[in-house]
Design brief:
With about 270 residues, this protein is α/β, with parallel strands linked by helices. It has a single domain (about 10-265), classed as Rossmann fold, CATH 3.40.50.150. The protein is built from eleven helices and seven strands. It has helices at about 10-15, 20-30, 40-50, 65-75, 85-100, 140-150, 170-175, 190-195, 210-225, 225-235, 235-255, and strands at about 55-60, 80-85, 105-110, 125-130, 150-165, 200-205, 255-265. Helix 6 crosses helix 8 (about 190-195) and helix 10 (about 225-235) crosses helix 11 (about 235-255). Bound molecules: S-adenosylmethionine (SAM). S-adenosylmethionine binds near residues 36 and 136.
């Protein structure tokens, strides 16, 4: 059974390193500092689904490196607050905001989203979370908090790559969970929780193939840069992450784990 493996600390602390940038470009095509299963096509579509305009104040839950939030602010003129439990990601995001002269419109705050959010009621025009909800305990309460901080009719978009689609062994669950805390959900459960929190469900899209392709390209790109990555993150961690990525690829290609993109709207 794999040991605990680090993904996020090394990705965010080595964000500027050439090898990590090369791996992101080989994996995603465009470097948006990703550590997720979001294709470029999906990251281009999220602003349209959220109906972003320059007047919008947007919350990104689990913003990781912060690079995507900055891209949204640069492209759409909106303001973004990114929150994440990883302090290295928050530090990187605020550094990038300063370098890009965007600190007046984009800020990053350290926050455990399983706790009550420190934002006022109805204070955001949109919220999104790319491959984050599966890490956060107490999903019904998290949805209630997102509902509370959104304005009436505002949209909430998030992806969940841990929907159970078939039989998964305990070894596979251990490998798939080796990088952190994870929650696996039965099909239909997210829909039920969103509606219970007061959201209207707009769309549920099957994006399982995004995870398959990204996991394969990510693992292959890391293999191409094996020596440099081992020097930076240790051999044991390198091997553990390769196993994690292979596990994601096989589980999603066989549709035993599914990824869905949910779009919901606050009633009112
Ligand atoms: C799969 S990564 C996605 C990062 C980014 N959204 C992206 O698309 O690259 C999941 C992120 O969720 C964050 N996270 C995990 N648990 C969290 C929590 N309880 N509160 C806030 N963020 C959390 C992790 O630190 C990590 O940055």
């Amino acid at each position: 059974m794999p040991e605990k493996v680090d993904l996020y600390d090394s990705a965010y602390s080595h964000y500027e390193a050439d090898v990590y940038r090369e791996v992101r470009i080989a994996t995603y095509g465009e470097d948006l500092g990703q550590t997720s299963w979001v294709t470029n096509e999906e990251s281009g579509e999220i602003p349209r689904i959220l109906r972003l305009t320059p007047a919008c104040r947007v919350l990104e839950i689990g913003c990781g490196s912060g690079r995507y939030a900055l891209q949204l602010a640069e492209t759409f003129g909106c303001s973004v607050i990114g929150v994440d439990i990883n302090e290295l990601g928050i530090r990187n995001g605020n550094h990038l905001a300063r370098v890009r002269n965007l600190s007046d419109r984009v800020t990053f705050e350290h926050c455990d989203v399983s706790q009550k959010l420190l934002f006022a009621d109805a204070s955001f025009d949109a919220a999104f979370a790319n491959d984050v909800m599966c890490h956060i305990s107490g999903r019904p309460a998290v949805f209630q908090e997102v509902f509370r901080i959104l304005k009436p009719s505002a949209r909430f978009v998030y992806s969940d790559a841990l929907i159970i689609g078939g039989i998964v062994s305990h070894e596979e669950i251990a490998s798939r969970s080796s990088i952190g805390y994870y929650l696996f959900s039965p099909p239909g459960h997210n829909e039920e929780l969103l509606q219970r929190a007061g959201f209207r469900l707009i769309e549920v899209r099957d994006t399982t193939d995004h995870a398959t392709g990204i996991a394969r390209r990510w693992r292959d790109a890391r293999e191409q840069n094996r020596e440099a990555l081992i020097a930076s993150e240790s051999e044991a961690n390198f091997v553990g992450l390769q196993q994690f990525l292979s596990c994601v690829q096989s589980l999603t290609s066989e549709r035993r784990l599914l990824r869905f993109l949910y779009t919901a709207q606050k009633r009112g």
